[in-house]
């Protein structure tokens, strides 16, 4: 968030006094408008589910860090790592990115993007794990990835992604997200780097295995990631993160289509950006509110210097993020609809 600058006084003490008075009024008013995180620690790419008498959140990090709260607004407390161990096919060091959690039948199923060798430092492939409890230990399923390009140094995945995708880089796959369409589970995911492509994979009824080959829904010349699908009476709405995640201009956008498989004529718009007062609001996940048909969106944004103050635009530089102690805490907002378009009704 940029600081407000008052122009220098031009007509002596009267203007100076007026400027000071305006500053005293404007700064608190601006601060009141800036949403505050519901979880103030580092909790990027949140996925939140309702379990028992509380809420369980999952974030990017080693073995998928987890937090629990009895209320969505907090207080949230650490609940240990989600994964018991890395899957056997993940041999490289690094965090697990942007997981998704879902209840499928009598199991809790966790989809995650784990590091692999053969596609660079940031290469990831998608795996699946399950547990009897959202707060229990999740065990990876099988000895191979669920989704992974064939040229990666890992056992052949169930969905290998086409070997030749004209115009797309040799990179990994990230940002898994479960959606139920036509009564069957499907997995959304993104092929990494630029240009971006969003793909949809049919899954078995257990949600643990591929039940066909993935299809490309659309691609984008820049970065579109973290896809989440919401079924609406007139079709589908997809939330995505757009841009460079290290910039305050990173934002949450939406696309709307009448068909889950046809996005060429989709209408588009912005759900959350810098105008909210936040720096880089993205990584959004959508969770139904308990005992309600309403939805809540959880997302991250950058804060600096150990406070809830949003960072400034300089955090796009690694050295500035480190010096400013920049982290991405979790925020929450109620989602509403106006003429079929998603809007934020209010922040928690």
Automatic annotation (TrEMBL):
Biological-process GO terms, alphabetical: carbohydrate metabolic process
Pfam families per UniProt: Glyco_hydro_43
Gene3D superfamilies reported for this sequence: Glycosyl hydrolase domain, family 43
Protein's name according to its UniProt entry: Glycoside hydrolase
Keywords of the record: Glycosidase, Hydrolase, Signal
Highest taxon listed in the record's lineage: Bacteria
PANTHER family given in the database record: BETA-XYLOSIDASE, ENDO-ARABINASE
Family: Belongs to the glycosyl hydrolase 43 family.
Protein's organism: Nocardioides currus
SUPFAM superfamilies referenced in this protein's UniProt entry, alphabetically: Arabinanase/levansucrase/invertase
Keyword Methyltransferase in annotation: no
